[in-house]
Specification:
By secondary structure, this protein is of the alpha/beta class. The chain contains six helices and seven strands; from the N terminus they run αααβαβββαβαββ. Strands 3-2-1-4-5-7-6 form a seven-stranded mixed beta sheet, with helices on both faces.
């Protein structure tokens, strides 16, 4: 029997079977290919260290949590937050909160008064097909991540947040990142798909807000 594919279906099929990072994630037993984006960031900037306390926003299915867990050791701690559950279970130093970030009560976060060394956000909106709307909704999620940093990030702590490119990105950085961090970078990992509009905002050395 001969199968027929539309051009779009065929391109999607070929992309999936040829995706190097997809196969690498399967081979190394990670929950998703997105793990390699965090690995690239960490390899370059050395943000995750043994003993760190880390918040992982948009954690499901769990690949960023898995990678971070392997770096922080038994003395570290992760609080993973997402609307969807993680695909794997972890030891007692990983706490999962199934919650909408827009409705999150920070007092539910274990040890929230002690502050965290690093906040990671791989959150993304449900895309609509309208680039401008996707961009704005992505900025809205980044804004929530920044608010969380104001409450939970240690002075000199670091910040990683996924964002979709668009016309308001520089304004967002000016209003939300430059005033809070001693320096910042925009980073697109090699493991991001070429057609993807995602970038990662990296904020280094959080400054105390007055």
């Amino acid at each position: 029997m001969m199968l027929w594919f539309t051009k779009t279906t065929w391109l999607f099929y070929m992309k999936k079977i040829k995706d190097f990072y997809f196969h690498q994630a399967k081979e190394k037993n990670y929950s998703a290919r997105s793990v390699f984006k965090l690995q690239e960031i960490d390899d370059k900037y050395k943000l995750i260290k043994n003993g760190f306390r880390v918040i992982d926003l948009g954690a499901s299915p769990g690949s960023w949590t898995e990678y971070t867990f392997g770096k922080i050791g038994q003395k570290g701690e992760i609080v993973a937050i997402d609307l969807k559950p993680l695909q794997k279970s972890f030891s007692n130093n990983v706490h999962f909160i199934q919650e909408n970030i827009l409705e999150l009560d920070i007092t539910k976060i274990p040890g929230y008064k002690e502050k965290f060394d690093l906040i990671l956000s791989d959150m993304a909106p449900n895309t609509t097909g309208i680039k401008g709307l996707n961009h704005q909704q992505s900025l809205d999620l980044c804004t929530e991540a920044v608010k969380l940093a104001d409450n939970l990030l240690k002075v000199y702590g670091n910040f990683v947040c996924k964002v979709f490119q668009g016309e308001d990105l520089q304004e967002f950085i000016h209003n939300n990142i430059i005033s809070r961090f001693e320096s910042y970078k925009l980073f697109k990992p090699k493991s991001s798909r070429k057609e993807s509009v995602e970038l990662f905002i990296l904020g280094f050395k959080y400054k105390k807000q007055v």
